[in-house]
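Fold this complex.
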Amino acid sequence: MSEDEWSKKIRKMKEDSERKIVEQQLAKNN
Amino acid sequence: MKGKYEEEKKKIIEMLDSELKKVAEIFKNPALEEYEQPNAESSSRGGHLDVPIVYDGHNVELGINFSFTLTDNGYGLQVEQGGYDTVQERTYRTLTLIPPPITVDAIRNQLEKFLESRKDIIERIEEKRRRFLRA
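Structure:
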């Protein structure tokens, strides 16, 4: 796996796992 | 035997340090306090990455630890993945070994498993929250 593919993969994993957290933070702020 | 693999070890430390810091940098969250941010460190003993989960009142201290272990064929890495949920008072822990020769792909494979486990824990917390809201 190239450096670029690996970075993209980590970013995707971050987005997937943090989506719930961001949704909840937004819900709290609203 | 230790001296025979010293140069190899230095290269592995550099590689490990670069991989751990990359993940820590990507997982930084500007909405969190400094002490809640991911943290990566490495030394002659190995390396460590913390990517805590701060979510819905939970604070899971989640980390992966790589420790050098010298074998007849060179250095391997013992990998310990673990965490502690301060709300549920629950400990998570797994132990595995990367045998020599240590490659960047083997390290990334362990990091990927660690991040998958982290995602699973967030999903379990979310599922519990939903059940609580339905009740």
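The domain at 3-134 of chain B is CATH 3.90.1150 (Aspartate Aminotransferase, domain 1).
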